[in-house]
Amino acid sequence: MLTLAKLAFRNVFRFKRRTFITLSAVSIGLALLIISISLLNGIDKQSISNIINCQTSHIKIFKKGYFDKKDELPLNIRIEDPTPVHEKLAGLKGIRASENRILFGAGLIKDMDELPCLGVAIDVEKDPEIFNIKESLVQGQWLDPKKSQMLVGKDLAKDIGLTVGDRVTVRMVTSSEDEDFSWNALDLEISGIFDSGNPGVDSQRLFIPMAIAREGLSMEKAVTEIVVRLESGDEKFVDRMKKEIGQILVSEGEDLEAFSWKDLAGTFLLISKMKSKNSAMIIMIMLFIASMGIINTMLMAVMERTREIGMLAAMGMKKKEITRLFVLEGSFIGAIGAFLGCFLGGMAGWYLETKGWSIKAMGESLQDLTSAFYPVKEVFYADITFELLLMTFLFGIAIAVLAALYPARKAAKMNPIRALRHI
Fold first, then answer.
1. CA-to-CA separations, 213 to 5, 65, 67, in angstroms, rounded
2. What are the residue ranges spanned by the domains of the chain?
């Protein structure tokens, strides 16, 4: 076997031009495969991080019935007194912090312009422990819980022409299913402008202190949701904590429900699932390209070395040994090509992981389209892992072996006498 391996390795480099072309096809195909998978995985990871850190946290608690109508922002389906819930959550291990919030329909009015948006009333002291809005401030300062202030996203401020220090009227929609349309208006000062990296948050949300919102919405102690931040974002841990919190709420007789970020990010997960199917198609195309290159190389080797194959058979080499020889040659080509592909793909993936890929370079229209599907803006970052490189390397070798089987068997079935007569 060792002799066959040495002979196969030497044969790989006997025809340098053909081997170079095949290695190029294999390595470039696998490199593109690594780049595409790492970039898609990175976009998913980045999107999930933005959803959790800007919108949902790990778990949300609602009054029963609110989740089904959450897009309508009903203020009549609410948690009247959240204090007992926080006391129960404090007894659970794995919870970092919890916060009261009120989500309400709003309109931002400046001069003759009004821009619809989503208002979020927050606990000014607790919010930085759960979300990254405070860390994302690019202008101004954080909210004062006792002052009539608000934070707006960078894109929202740009759309209506706001700067720090401006006083703006906020229309707060207070209607519900039990009453006719009603609203209240507050004059608030722009305390700060944030850029969270989540286009949906930066272009559609404004944040105001809880006390100011309760006064404007006549909510007293009530809130529409309680958000919970866990010590770990591991999916299995989040699912387990959601189940534990739900069981505690039921056992205590609370008319409340717990939902994880996955329950709240259904649209994104649906897009991600569709993307996974497309990724599988990309993988199949890349592997097909690599396998075709190897098959073509090995078939050419069989045709060009017909007399050599006949001589090997005449000298006593068995059909199994001839098959192994050509399979080993294909394996060496696959291994070298896979190594080069992993190196090139790994370097490109590392660059995209550290520097990112600017969406702006694709044009404003495509950037807006991308932002509509993914909660990411401006820059995509890849996620390159050792597991991805290892699996790609092993796949490359496996495909090479399978691709070399047919040419190898074709070579083994040759008639030695006819092969020796071949010119």
1. 76, 23, 21
2. 2-51+268-421, 59-232
